Amino acid sequence: MRKLSFSLVLVAALSVSLFAQKPAWQPDPGHITLDLWPHGAPDAKASAGAEIDATTAKDNLIAGKPLIRLGNVSSPTLTLYAPSGKNTGAGVVVFPGGGYQILAIDLEGTEVCDWLTSRGITCVLVKYRVPDSGPYPKSPAALQDAQRALGMVRAHAAAWNIDPHRIGVLGFSAGAHLSAALSTHFAQRLYDRVDDADQLSCRPDFAVIIYPGYLAMAEQNFAPNAEIKVTSETPPSFILQAEDDPVHVENSTVYFLALKNAKVPAELHIYAEGGHGYGLRRTEMPVTAWPHLVETWLQTLHVVSAP
User: Fold this and answer.
1) DSSP state of 130
2) pTM for the whole thing?
3) 241 with 25: CB under 8 angstroms?
4) For the chain, which ranges sit under pLDDT 50?
5) DSSP per-residue string spanning 32-78
6) Contact at 8 Å (CB) between 214 and 135?
């Protein structure tokens, strides 16, 4: 009887241990996932523990549904989502938002990939390091991950049926800032070379910037962020935000004007209402129809062909 009791306790302990080790998020089966840093991330900080879903019962729902707020990411990855139908040859690298503290990995990640792949566009979802991994230069970690991810996608472009000259980025909130930071910090890597992927350009061919933060400095009367130095080499950009966004719509308008002054092709959409953090989930707010605008814009850039 004592042996039986011990066995039951052991099984229960193992079950609890396995449950505790289960990742807070992982891609559905069938997707290729690669570590960004095969030998460990540069400037790595001590891990705060296992990855967690930081969502609580008190957190708001988006379009009536919860979302995963992925935290404690110390081992960044990229995950490939192949087109579900005809392949256009275009690729988009997606950076979820979350204030550089968490990643809205489904709302602004997997759901975005589902949309893109349904339009024949290859999606690469980046799970970059959080928390306190940006904005650059406060921390270089997220931008290092973004630079590395773009180079890796170009290195795998042939194998993944992507045109290496039609690879863009799409980001939300902090991820939108990261997209803009990458669009202006591609000439030099912020880390030592890892492999041949780091010899390839990490400049995006286009950028989609959705409700960005950190691009205008509220404490400086919304002056442009001096670390985001737009030049004529900055890629064409699509920018969208709502005027009532608590993160401040000036982040979009200031960045658009910088692009305009540098003669970079840019498209700006400002909606009266919509708030912040809606991802692709449709609500009664007109701003949530923005994916159709992006599809049209990609056609005007000849990234994809008209249907």
Assistant:
1) B
2) 0.92
3) no
4) 1-21
5) -EEES-TT--TTPPPP-SS-EE---TTSPPBTTB---EEE-B-S-EE
6) yes
- Which tens digit of pLDDT belongs to each residue from 63-118? 999 999 999 999 999 999 999 889 999 999 999 999 999 999 999 999 999 999 99
Dist. CA 23–CA 129, nearest whole Å: 15
Per-residue burial over 263-291, b if 16 or more Cβ lie within 10 Å, else e, is: ebebbbbbbeebebbbbbeeeeeebbebb
- At 147 the pLDDT is 98
Peptide bond into 131 cis (omega under 30): yes
**What is the phi/psi pair of residue 171, to 5°?**
-140, 160
Nearest CA to 235 out of 281, 188, 185, 190 is that of 185
| Of 136, 79, 132, nearest in space to 101 by CA | 132
AA identity, residue 242 = A
Coil, helix or strand at residue 194: coil
Given this model, what pLDDT does residue 22 score?
Answer: 62
304: amino acid identity, one letter: V
R_g of the chain, CA atoms, integer Å: 20
Q: Locate tokens 């992507």: which residue?
A: 162
Q: What's the pLDDT at 85?
A: 85
In the chain, the amino acid numbered 128 is: Y
Please state, in angstroms and rounded to a whole number, the distance separating the CA atoms of residues 216 and 153: 30
